[in-house]
Design brief:
Layout (H helix, E strand, L loop, with lengths): L20 E6 L1 H10 L1 H7 L11 E9 L11 E11 L5 E23 L2 E11 L43 E3 L4 E3 L15 H19 L13 E8 L17 E2 L19 H4 L24 H16 L7 H13 L23
Antiparallel strand pairs: 1-2, 2-4, 3-4, 4-5, 5-8, 6-7, 8-9
Helix pairs in contact: 5-6
The structure holds heme C (HEC).
């Protein structure tokens, strides 16, 4: 388990007061490619159109701690070494330096892989069925309306939308019990990543078919417990349209265009935000902008960024043929400066956030 912080976000605290832990796993070809170009010096050697090979796959997963008296029957569980946590004395959370063995339950997983003609990877995400309610249609994400009368793993019945998906700025940690306050209540802003109705029915039938197949025993290698997980959606681009030096691919997304996982990107959900808001071909810390690789994704999805992305999509629609994207990006950076943001010392523009969670490796 690598981290308790979400990408550019804080921790997610479950209804038992335990932090959710995140892990990353790679298949051998993803690992080999990443290793070849890892670090600014190696990365410099890659041509701007270098891509991961077909089949390269990477996973990011979210795990909650199973309570000592709990039997988590509807989730895949395993035993893991976790970092124990303590307060950093300033309202934040840090590793205490000790570890423990815990039973953990899989609550969400990103599955991202390259297929033929899609060097941008297909970005898919799955959630355990009891994670969180979907925000009902037409209810604004900040409304004072209850999201659901039911309890979920990450949601207490009748919590309002406004009180949910809130990233706390200070936490208290009880080191002995490893419980943390406040608890996070979560809703899923888009049930299917804001896909169009025909795609929603594809996602639905994929889930039903998969359940039938593993229930009917025709896919014997798969543990039946995985019938308790739903594909939320997947995201890709038109075939072979990936270009270097694009610092927000969200407007180019096809499929579940605003895809997020409620337990992996709890605080970054919303219209105009997807995996492609952060995972881009733009430059990262000391990395020149080139292709979509794990090294080039240091890009924060703040509300300002989202507004800017929306403006950029509109400008792209109006862009005269033949003009490059660079001027569009430059004017977008201008918007961000106008919005009162400062230049990042690492050469990017964006909000400087005091959060200890900024994690760009
Ligand atoms: C708010 C920005 C942001 C969003 C939105 C986002 N990610 Fe990420 N993602 C990151 C960052 C940063 C990392 C690096 C590890 C970390 O900090 O957790 C990462 C790591 C990953 C990894 C592990 C491999 C790697 O590149 O390190 C996968 C797989 C992944 N994300 C998939 C997704 C998928 C699928 C979506 C959309 C459903 C998504 N991400 C949305 C920022 C984001």
């Amino acid at each position: 388990m690598e981290s308790i912080n979400q990408a550019f976000g804080g921790p997610l605290i479950d209804q038992n007061g335990r932090a959710v832990y995140y892990a990353i796993h790679m298949d051998p070809s993803y690992f080999a490619t990443t290793q070849e170009y890892y670090g600014p010096t190696n990365y410099e050697k890659a041509s701007p159109t270098t891509t991961y090979p077909v089949g390269a796959t990477v996973f990011k997963s979210a795990w909650r701690i199973v309570q000592p008296n709990e039997i988590a029957v509807k989730a895949y569980t395993t035993s893991a070494t976790i970092d124990l946590l303590k307060s950093n004395g300033m309202g934040g959370i840090e590793k205490s330096g000790d570890t423990a063995t815990a039973t953990v339950a899989l609550v969400g997983v990103h599955v991202v892989g390259v297929v033929q003609d899609h060097p941008e990877f297909i970005w898919g995400t799955f959630e355990q069925v009891e994670n969180a309610p979907d925000l009902p249609p037409l209810v604004p994400p900040t409304s004072e309306t209850s999201v659901s009368p039911q309890n979920f793993t990450f949601y207490k019945a009748e919590t309002t939308a406004a009180q949910s998906n809130q990233q706390a700025s200070t936490f208290t940690v009880d080191q002995a019990s490893q419980t943390i306050a406040p608890i996070t209540n979560v809703f899923r802003q888009f049930a299917f990543g804001n896909a169009t109705p025909d795609r929603v029915s594809d996602i639905d039938s994929t889930n039903k078919l998969f359940r039938q197949m593993i229930g009917g025993g025709s896919v014997k290698k798969i543990d039946q417990v995985f019938s308790n997980y739903n594909l939320i959606g997947s995201l890709w681009m038109l075939p072979n349209t990936l270009e270097p030096n694009f610092d927000n691919l969200q407007p180019n997304g096809v499929g579940s265009v605003d895809l997020a996982n409620s337990v992996l990107e709890t605080y970054a959900q919303g219209a105009g935000t997807s995996c492609f808001s952060c995972h881009t071909t733009g430059k990262g810390d000391n990395y020149p902008g080139k292709d979509v690789t794990s090294a080039t994704r240091c890009w924060a999805a703040s509300p300002e960024r989202t507004r800017c992305a929306a403006g950029r999509a509109e400008r792209q629609r109006r862009r005269p043929k033949g003009r490059r994207f660079t001027d569009v990006r430059a004017s977008c950076r201008g918007d961000e400066r106008a919005a009162g943001q400062t230049a990042d010392p690492r050469g990017r523009t964006g909000p400087i956030r005091p959060s200890p969670s900024r994690h760009c490796s």
